[in-house]
Amino acid sequence: MEPAPNPRVGVAVFVLNSEGKFIVGKRKGSHGAGTWALPGGHLEYGESWETCAERETLEETNLKIRDVRYLTATNEVFEAERKHYITIFMGSVCEEGAQPEILEPEKCEAWEWVSWEELTTFGKAGGQFESRELFKPISSLFVQRPDFRV
Ligand code: 8DG
Ligand code: MG
Ligand code: MG
């Protein structure tokens, strides 16, 4: 058997607007395709969590964020893909009225603004977002950090 791969660090970003809504995107082309996730990506060598959050958000949405802060973290093993992630969830705000752009169309189908309450109804029968599936690390956030709120 192949040696076990090392855990990697993912940084996921809640980008909030003045209404307290944040951006979610439909993933494309990599693991979790078709599911909804936050802007974010892999922590690079030497980077702080804050810098990674700013860089990934800018690369993926063209939004400049501020008040970037640590919120919580999860530990997730994707057995089938033999991937293990520590995910650092960061909070931030964007400029009033700013809108996300799809800068990586090969990785993202759409960006949308949702509230925390709406996010928790993704995939729930009978709800407005019934047909939407959450990226697994986000469902894990609900399980591993049940008291967490943005
Ligand atoms: P990069 O090459 O730009 O560095 O990476 P990426 O292509 O943008 O990576 P990604 O898959 O978007 O994010 C890296 C990992 O971070 C992802 O595979 C698992 C973890 N992660 C979570 N939750 C979230 C989330 O809500 N959004 C994103 N984008 N990543 C997340 O655990
Ligand atoms: Mg990225
Ligand atoms: Mg990404």
TrEMBL record:
Belongs to the Nudix hydrolase family. CDD domains: NUDIX_MTH2_Nudt15. One of its GO terms (biological process) is dGTP catabolic process. Keywords: Hydrolase. It holds the Pfam family NUDIX. Residues 6-136 form the Nudix hydrolase domain. GO terms for molecular function: 8-oxo-7,8-dihydrodeoxyguanosine triphosphate pyrophosphatase activity. InterPro entries: Nudix_hydrolase, NUDIX_hydrolase-like_dom_sf, NUDIX_hydrolase_CS, NUDIX_hydrolase_dom. It comes from Penicillium brevicompactum. The keyword Membrane does not apply. One of its GO terms (cellular component) is cytosol. This is Nudix hydrolase domain-containing protein.
